[in-house]
Amino acid sequence: MSTPIRASTQEHLDIDDVRDHLVLLKDGGAALVLQTTAVNFGLLSETEQDAMMVAFAATLNSLSFPIQIVIRSKKYDITTYIERLRQAELRQQNPKFRNQMTHYRAFVESTIQENNVLDKRFYIVIPFSPIELGLGSTFGIFSSRKIPYSKTYILEKAKTALFPRRDHLLRQLGRVGLKGTQLSTEQLISLYHDIYNPDTPRGQHVGTQIDSFTAPLVQRSGAEPPPPVKEEVPVGQPIIQPQPTKPAMPPTPDAIRHTLTQLDSAIQRLRGGNI
């Protein structure tokens, strides 16, 4: 008999729940997370840099609420791209084309490993303080007092306060030349899952459906995963058989030459540093 997972670590986390694209905290507060684009400041001219700084200063001065700017840097994950290249190699029947794809895949893998290419993500967090609910500082994640409001009530109050702040900040970011988008519930769960599970194997991603998040956010190391659930087919219901697919047509000589030219151009750009 396996020992059930006791999520003792989660008792010390600030996050209580994620609903309606908002993060609910245990102290009665909430937060809205925006993901924004970035600008390469070093490539701008001196005049453009001055204009960018003035616009960004005006954005900060226009805020009447606190924000948090978060920059996450992690090693770029090209597992999905490499797997697509490998599957394309297996489907390719032309030996010359397959050989070119093999060299291209090996070159991309070595380039990412040797240069340690980082993937940077930029976020802006807009908080909703529990003080705005009328709660004092005695309510917190380590407090034994229970919050006298339901999650539905907190969500309504948080949306009323956060949505105008979000719209104002998005307009100000547009003036700076940045584009921001609010993270959805699934994206928030994936983000925090990645933050609290930094040792997750590369290429392994959490699902996109809310119903698939059945495991605790932080799992104890060495814990066995739950057995897979077998789906039963109701009696009398026919089983849908997959339709046979038509065999793929072999590529024409012109298509092969065109693809080889594109691969050679990509390799030349990678060797020149233009990736």
Written overview of the protein:
The chain contains six helices and six strands, in the order E-E-E-H-E-H-H-E-H-E-H-H. It has 275 residues and is an alpha+beta fold. The model is unreliable at 214-226 and 228-243 (pLDDT under 50). It has two domains: 12-75 and 118-200 and 207-214, no CATH class; 77-116 and 249-275. Strands 1, 2, 3, 4, 5 and 6 form a six-stranded antiparallel beta sheet that branches.
The poorly predicted ranges are: 214-226, 228-243
- Radius of gyration (Å): 25 Å
Q: How many strand units?
A: 6
For the biggest sheet, the summary is: 6 strands, antiparallel
How many domains make up the coordinates?
Answer: 2
Distance between the termini: 52 Å
Enumerate how many helices there are, as a single number: 6
Helix percent reads 25-40%
Q: For this entry, what is the oligomeric state of its chains?
A: single chain
The share of residues in extended strands comes to: 5-15%
- What does the average pLDDT come to? 77
Helix-strand category = alpha+beta
Order of helices and strands: EEEHEHHEHEHH
Summarize this structure briefly.
The protein has 275 residues and is an alpha+beta fold.
